[in-house]
Amino acid sequence: MRESVQAEVMMSFLVSEELSFRIPVELRYETCDPYAVRLTFHLPGDAPVTWAFGRELLIDGVGRPCGDGDVRIAPAGPEALGEVLIRLQVGTDQALFRSSTPPLVAFLDRTDKLVPLGQEGALADFDAHLDEALDRILAEEQSAG
């Protein structure tokens, strides 16, 4: 059985209303973390930056505005049919990306074929992976403090 789904899409990094540039973004979904998708942004001159957030947030954001925290996703608006805005925020810093909707939908469709939405918890080893990840995070926090 395949363990992951990957795709690369070109997104516009919206620096300001006057300035934007296209960057490659790698989308990744793995069965070892079935609730999340990862987007790796390849910004020129910087190391790649990866964000992980809920797959369901991306699914919902394609059709309607959603997200309350660091990740907000929404259709770009009626004047920009077929486009999605992804806003990422850390503190007061934020980055805004615009993507065409069809490649996101195609990627999400492939993730659904691998692990249907709502069936994430049925993966037998998910709890073990979650426990390992939590143990690793706690160990890192204890060694840093």
Description:
The protein is of the alpha+beta class and 145 residues long. 29% of the residues lie in helices and 38% in strands. It has three helices and seven strands. A seven-stranded antiparallel sheet has the order 4-3-2-1-7-6-5, with helices on both faces. Strand 2 and strand 3 form a beta hairpin. The relative contact order is 0.16.
Write the layout of secondary structure elements.
Blueprint lengths: L3 E11 L5 E11 L5 E6 L7 E6 H9 L7 E5 L7 E8 L2 E8 H14 L11 H19 L1
Antiparallel strand pairs: 1-2, 1-7, 2-3, 3-4, 5-6, 6-7
Helix pairs in contact: 1-2
Q: Beta-strand percentage?
A: 35-45%
Number of strands: 7
Number of helices: 3
Shape, principal axes of CA atoms: globular
| Side-by-side strand order of the widest sheet | 4-3-2-1-7-6-5
| Series of secondary-structure elements, N-terminal to C-terminal | EEEEHEEEHH
Q: What is the terminal-to-terminal distance?
A: 41 Å
Low-confidence segments: none
Mean pLDDT: 87
Global structural class: alpha+beta
Give the tags:
single chain; alpha+beta; 7-stranded antiparallel β-sheet; globular
Explain briefly what this protein structure is.
The chain is α+β, with helices and mostly antiparallel strands. It is 29% helix and 38% strand.
